[in-house]
Amino acid sequence: MSQRLQAVKGTRDLLPPDTALWAAVEGAARRVFERYGFHEIRTPIFEETELFARGVGEATDIVGKEMYSFEDKGGRSLTLRPESTAAVCRAYVEHGMQSLPQPVKLFYIGPQFRYERPQKGRYRQFHQIGAELLGGRGAESDVETLLVLVAFLGELGFGDLQVLLNTVGDAESRAAYRDRLVAFLRPHAAELGEDSRRRLDSNPLRILDTKDPDEQAILAGAPRLEDCLTAASRDHFARVRAHLDAFAVPYRIEPRLVRGLDYYTNTVFEIVSQGLGAQNAICGGGAYEGLVEELGGPPTYGVGFAIGEDRLIEVLPQSFRERLQGRGPVVVAAMGKLPAPADGVAPLFALIEELRRAGIPAIEGSGKGGKLFEAAERQRSPYVVFLGEQEQRDGTVTLRELASRAQRTLPRGEAIAELRRLYSPAS
Ligand code: HAM
Predict the structure, then answer these.
(1) What is the CA angle 346-327-426, rounded to 5?
(2) Which residues' Cβ are closer than 6 Å to ligand 1?
(3) What would the pLDDT profile of 6-57 be if each residue is shown by its tens digit?
């Protein structure tokens, strides 16, 4: 026997019945996003490497060590998308969407790729449900984006998720803060870990994000970004908070929240779930005022988020799972031995196809007696449809309702009409 091949490390197959859950979550996302005026965009799975280097930032972990980059046969450096915001902004510029009525509100659902160490809730191919609002109006756009996010999570039945909110200021605030932070940390350089020491030069704000308790202790005395905010940034943040209060969106200010991508300005946020442990956010996002321009477009206000769909599904409320478990297919089984088909088509096969053509989901039962009923119940089947020699002769079938165990024999046409009503969308 040849050696068996397996899915690549950090990737996985999504199988039924889980795929139904994924589809239902994505269906809910489409419904809620459309309600808020977001429409779907599908960008390619791979892009020029340059897009992410420029968009996400050379100094980030994503660009520095997590990208699946390769050279294609034409010698281009391409990268499997590690995120989609840069790609959406590229598409906005490429298709001249700045001349459409603003803002342009887009959402996307699809796989992303990062070369990370796989663990619970962390994959190398993972999936995001994200939204971007481009050409917006500052604080109000931030709030509209948060509102669609909260509405979607509410639709899934999440009751207790909290938005962690912070501001990273505008470019001017950040430049001022960067200088003060580096001046404070430089004398502590020897006490910092290797990653943070490197970031002192490349990306000092990211040090704030450290999970290392010793570094956290040093940072307790660090200057605060809040104190370096320009008046405009301060006002922006105040307006976001005032709106969230007015709309009764629960949030918590998290002064250390800086996010791992370079394009953010002012508002940033994450949503964490207890179920996944503190390190695993199910959602991250924020505003980006310079990204579209960085990619060759006009100055454009952008804000958006991406939800990690794999993580979202791991902590999905039971209520949503239950709502999904609707009616299963009818189970069709032979009673006794059926006569051999005269025309070559087995009678059971013919009955199943007849049901399916009438719009009734139907599958062939397996096993006999108790086993058959047990399997049918597990699949939430409402009925077992029996076909025996007698029924075959009379043009009837026997319906067994699983809940009541009541059994009736009736003309085939009548049985089909009855089952059809059961599965019609109105019922
Ligand atoms: P991000 O924080 O890098 O932001 O990713 C968003 C979410 O994707 C995370 O909160 C997490 O749930 C999920 N995620 C990230 N990496 C993995 C992984 N290896 N395995 C499983 N899930 C993962 C962004 O990607 C930004 N583009 C979000 C954004 C949109 N900002 C503005 N607009």
Answers:
(1) 105
(2) 83, 85, 114, 116, 121-123, 126, 128, 130, 132, 260-261, 281-286, 304-306, 308, 310-311
(3) 999 999 999 998 999 999 999 999 999 999 999 999 999 999 999 999 999 9
Question: Using one digit for the tens of pLDDT, what is the confidence trace for 263-312?
Answer: 999 999 999 877 666 567 999 999 999 999 999 999 999 999 999 999 99
Which stretches of 290-379 are DSSP H helices? 291-294, 309-314, 318-324, 347-357, 369-378
Annotate 240-255 with b (16+ C-beta within 10 A) or e (fewer).
bbebbeeeebebeebe
**Cα gap 43→106, rounded to integer Å:** 11
Which residues are within 8 A (CB) of 87 and not within 5 positions of it... i.e. 6 or more apart? 43, 44, 47, 51, 81
Closest ligand 1 atom to 124 CA: 19
- Tell me: cis bond preceding 382? Omega within 30 of 0 counts: no
Q: Which domains does the chain have, with CATH numbers?
A: 18-170+230-322 (3.30.930.10), 327-422 (3.40.50.800)
Nearest ligand 1 atom to the CA of 122 is 20
Q: Which residue lies with its CA nearest to atom 31 of ligand 1?
A: 285
pLDDT at 203: 86
Distance, CA 306 to ligand 1 centroid (Å)?
A: 6
Q: How far is the CA of 9 from the centre of ligand 1 (A)?
A: 19
